[in-house]
Amino acid sequence: MDQKRPLAPALIGRGTVSNFRDMLRALETIENAEYRFVAHGEVIDEGTTALVKLMADPESATLIVNGCLFLNVASYRYLDFDQNEEGRWRFTLYGDDSTLELIHVPDTSEEGDTGRPHLLTDEEVPDFGSLILLDDEDDEE
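Predicted structure:
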């Protein structure tokens, strides 16, 4: 047992990741966020959004529309995560001359509020493929 295997990174409390799987796992801990999108040093948009879809797809765009975030980690080179001065989790995604900063907004509902981020589960994400199929069936009538 003289040979030791290489260890995977361990990032606790803060870090930088570029692997899509690691980026997805970090981001699936948020449901709602304050966001700020900066391109070429200029703030383009900011507001509050709900994370609706999280993916790593080289053919899809990252979209923030109607208060919903469809986040594609393939739109970015790497992600930094840490806690800000208020103790809220901050995720900054870096693209080419752009950044998307997401600051976790804790769930304010009384039921089950632990003050911690919650994992985004498949049950919470709408199945848009099924919705489109159902909508197409209605058009045939």
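Summary: Residues 15-107+122-139 form one domain.
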